[in-house]
Amino acid sequence: MGLVMPLSVCTFSGFFKSFTSPIHVLIPCSEVTSVICGTLHSVDQYLNIKLTDISVTDPEKYPHMLSVKNCFIRGSVVRYVQLPADEVDTQLLQDAARKEALQQKQ
Amino acid sequence: SLEDCPLDEDEDAFQGLGEEDEEIDQFNDDTFGSGAVDDDWQEAHERLAELEEKLPAAVNEQTGNGERDEMDLLGDHEENLAERLSKMVIENELEDPAIMRAVQTRPVLQTQPGSLNSSIWDGSEVLRRIRGPLLAQEMPTVSVLEYALPQRPPQGPEDDRDLSERALPRRSTSPVIGSPPVKAVPIGTPPKQMAVPSFNQQILCPKPVHVRPPMPPRYPAPYGERMSPNQLCSVPNSSLLGHPFPPSVPPVLSPLQRAQLLGGAQLQPGRMSPSQFARVPGFVGSPLAAMNPKLLQGRVGQMLPPAPGFRAFFSAPPPATPPPPQQHPPGPGPHLQNLRSQAPMFRPDTTHLHPQHRRLLHQRQQQNRNQHRNLNGAGDRGGHRSSHQDHIRKDPYANLMLQREKDWVSKIQMMQLQSTDPYLDDFYYQNYFEKLEKLSAAEEVQGDGPKKERTKLITPQVAKLEHTYKPVQFEGSLGKLTVSSVNNPRKMIDAVVTSRSEDDETKEKQVRDKRRKTLFIIEKTYSLLLDVEDYERRYLLSLEEERPALMDERKHKICCMYDNLRGKLPGQERPSDDHFVQIMCIRKGKRMVARILPFLSTEQAADILMTTARNLPFLIKKDAQDEVLPCLLSPFSLLLYHLPPVTVTSLLQQLMNLPQSAAAPAPSNPHLSAVLQNKFGLSLLLVVLSRGEDLQSSDPASESAQSNPWTEVMFVATRELLRIPQTGLAKPISIPTNLVSLFSRYVDRQKLNLLETKLQLVQGIR
Question: Best interface-test mutation with B: which of A16, A20, A51 has the largest number of B CBs within 10 A?
Fold first, then answer.
């Protein structure tokens, strides 16, 4: 799998590109929140997320999701995204954000 | 009110109303009554549903010469339009080999005289010629327009057709912006009873006048039904060509997921290798066509599934990378056979990734494949497969987009992926995988394992072209449109920054502001640091004559950083520690200092170290929550190896808060206690002691001399250490090995044992 994304869009696009293992996405649905876990397929500039091979953490609560394998999640409804900690280099991420801020200033 | 109006005025008013009524009646009649076009949307819908069955026959007849006349007319008109368009298009973009490769090129047809060169929309001449051979081989490709129009039985040249109806409105968007064509008619409008335009016309202008409601992502027809001449010519015997997305799987399907679905089924022999793949640029169109075109409307950024055409950006994968598995025996399960016949080539999709990333992904794929093989996970999907097979054959929504349309879409996406400086634009990704590689390289050096290929990601750098914004202008219109887009952003609001006055600030505010100032200084220094860290790369990339200037710049920046750290104030001989301590109270400040230290000169770094040692208890207290101080240990250790003995001695004094003179020591030494109770403090102390011992033992002159500063200090130090109660001593990060020998010089056996136990210097099984 590979993520192909516009390069100059955002630091976080490049950040999301580097993942290979499943991530958890927490979605609010009015009263109840559900956690969808899946492999990141692609991300866009609005941080809309496409996940493949998803699973829901609480299948009894959301049985309608049993048959869903892939999904597209609008970025605005995502509350949290839980990422595998060992795949994240926070120092590097901070640097990337700083560089981008510098670039924008220029 | 009405009563107040005089009668005669009323009459006039009523007459006016009456006239209005007549007009309204006329409008109504036109819209709903007899004057209106007889348009039954239900009928049109049924026609649409039957369209695909009728169409093959109809189309084949249409490609005769009968319609040459109108086509010429149309052709001219379209040529005109296309010419104008091509003039508006900026040529440079189209010369990009990557982009052109993404778009299905037809090199044969470029020689056609009179055809337009390198325009987004090929001239009508060009397309007319290809229509013939195309239709002979493939299922008719019908554009969106075709679907929307009612099917008429094939007719000869019709002079009575209204030409103006066929003339498509001009494009009113600048092609530079790259937005899809503007809809002339809103979505969902039932199609007008237009004359059936020639088949060619639709191909020429993919801009949909009538647009269907958003469709789910469609894929091109399965293999065998839809192949462009290019594809057919270049890959004659491959059985797996077609498109990477088998229609039987859900839409947005990544290669990884495909691998999982295959569940251990191996790919058929005869698959194309990546190098072959590169020769067939037409593939780019297909996977990207699976995207919902709606996402494109008006915006440049969008979701991008993997694009095999992206390969053009990168050099061929290095030889060490294992080629995709070929020559594998067929896998289990008859239901999987069908899948495999349309098996996607997911490996080539990944060549645009960093080699390390690719390796990781392949590893995962292997793991997943093994899992699936064990679990026989694909079994339950077999049922789905067979039912989907029927769907594949009569997919009513296939071929809705022409190859040209798909190419257009993929061209837009490819343009986005161009980057003049991928290192800057994609900083995180590149560096992350570089670091991973370095780590694995380091591990290998230790582990003495097989040497992996140290592959680098080579990306071509596209020269950045300045596109000056030319506002869109129409013929015969006044003025220019101001369209704000990604290429030429317009300022919406003028925000003026006003600074607050310095009067009436309370104490709290001052404290807050001080912290803010410190944060600000930290960020400024961070920018400098990132710049300085980048210099090595720039140095390599620069020319010979530029290098001295670069070095000077770098030195200057390092001095600036140091000044920022120490807070140089005019009129002060020695800067106070306060500024530095403030920085060190903030977590990112500490991290930053750790990163800056290697760049500083020895004196500067020693100064920092001394200041830290002096204020260590305070810093320890502030670090209670963050616990980030240990990150400073390794740069400090490195620094210690460059320090002269004098400095080390005074450092030890500072660190332990030893009394300067040989007077009676104070009853308690809270400074030292605090230091010893902190992991960082204790570790630093041990390292300093170790270094001192190293220096001492390596210098023969001081060996003999009984009294030198170090020895004196050591006596005091050991005395202090013995005095300190053992409550809550921290566990050091690392224990240098020469401490026992160090202490043995200055204390007797008994006290040595005490010290050992207290500081846990001897590691062993007790």
Answer: A20
What's the whole-number mean pLDDT along residues B701-726? Answer: 74
Contact across the interface for A1 and B357, Cβ inside 8 Å: no
Report if residue A84 sits inside a domain. yes
Q: Are residues B578 and B621 in the same domain?
A: no
Among the partner residues B253, B304, B428, nearest to A4 by beta-carbon distance: B304
Between residues B450 and A27, which one has the greater pLDDT? A27
Q: What is the pLDDT of residue B196?
A: 43
- 3-state SS of chain A is CCCCCCCCCCHHHHHHHCCCCCEEEEEEECCEEEEEEEEEEEECCCCCEEEEEEEECCCCCCHHHCCCCEEEECHHHCCEEECCHHHCCHHHHHHHHHHHHHHHHC
| Cα separation values, B413 from A41, B25, B179, B287, B348, Å | 17, 51, 11, 12, 18
Shortest Cα distance, chain A CAs vs residue B308, angstroms: 10
Domain that holds residue B571: 506-600
pLDDT of residue B754: 77
For the stretch B630-682, pLDDT in tens is 888 888 888 888 888 888 888 888 888 877 665 666 677 788 888 888 888 88
DSSP string, B637-655: HHHHTTS-HHHHHHHHHHH
For A98, which residue in chain B has the nearest alpha carbon?
Answer: B527
- Show the domain range for A31: 9-104
pLDDT at B416 over 60: yes
Phi, psi (deg, nearest 5) at residue B316? -60, 145
The encoded tokens of residue B697 equal 């033992």
At residue B106, the 3 state secondary structure works out as coil
CATH number at residue A35: 2.30.30.100
Phi-psi region of B402 (alpha: psi -120 to 50; beta: other; left: phi over 0): beta
Q: Is residue A79 part of a domain?
A: yes
Structure-block tokens of residue B659: 């009394």
Residue B160 included in any domain: no
pLDDT: which is higher, A106 or B197 = A106
Report if residue B343 sits inside a domain: no
Do B738 and B635 belong to one domain? yes
Asked whether residue B564 falls in the same domain as residue B640, the answer is no
Interface check A2 vs B, CB under 8 A? yes
- Together in a domain, B747 and B626: yes
Is B530 contained in some domain?
Answer: yes
A95 touches chain B (CB under 8 A): yes
What's the maximum distance between 2 C-alpha atoms anywhere in chain B?
A: 132
Do B592 and B676 belong together in one domain? no
Residue B534 within any structural domain of the chain: yes
Q: In angstroms, rounded to a whole number, what is the distance separating the alpha carbons of residues B711 and B688? A: 14
Q: What is the pLDDT of residue B747?
A: 77
Q: Are residues B714 and B624 in the same domain?
A: yes
Q: Provide the mean pLDDT of chain B.
A: 63
The string of pLDDT tens digits covering residues A41-56 is 888 778 888 888 888 8
Interface subset of B 568-627, CB within 8 angstroms of A: 588, 591
Same domain, B752 and B695: yes
Task: Tell me the C-alpha distance between B325 and B220, whole Å.
Answer: 25
Q: Tell me the whole-structure pTM to 2 decimals.
A: 0.51
How many domains does the structure of chain B reveal? 2
Task: Tell me, yes or no, whether B589 and B630 share the same domain.
Answer: no
Map B218-272 to HEC letters. CCCCCCCCCCCHHHHHHCCCCCCCCCCCCCCCCCCCCHHHHHHHHCCCCCCCCCC
What are the CA-CA distances from residue B430 to residues A15, B246, B256, B434, B458 (Å)? 10, 32, 22, 6, 11
Choice among A24-38, B69-83, B95-109, B664-678 with the minimum mean pLDDT: B95-109
Does the beta carbon of A99 lie under 8 angstroms from any beta carbon of chain B?
Answer: yes
Q: Which residues of A touch B254 (CB under 8 A)?
A: 1, 39, 41, 52
Q: Do A2 and B352 touch (CB under 8 A)?
A: yes
